[in-house]
Design goal:
The chain has 101 residues and is an all-alpha fold. The chain has a domain of 66 residues. It contains 3 helices and no strands. Helix 1 packs parallel to helix 3 and helix 2 packs across helix 3. The longest helix is centred in the middle third of the chain and has 20 residues.
Length: 101
Amino acid sequence: MTSDMQKEAMAVLAEVWSLSPDVRLGQLLAHLGFLGEAHLGRGLGYIEDDELLAVLYRHKAELLARLEGTTNPALPGAGTDTSVSGSPTSLEPTPTAELGR
């Protein structure tokens, strides 16, 4: 990883972590490893640096969209009801049974 890429990765990691203040650093790293496996078929220790940056940027965009209550059209698969991590992106009311029927 080049020095510029290292600085960029660390900056994006800090941004992602600030968007998830309740997440511990170890949890965030484990989650990034899960995303690498889910999208690239390889764990965090086996993905290339540019792929890690792509995962970081993708996760950052997902978190920003979630905070704004929207989906991010720049992401592949955007507009769907699930995020890159498989969690719902849209908040829908829980269906309730109608009374008296």
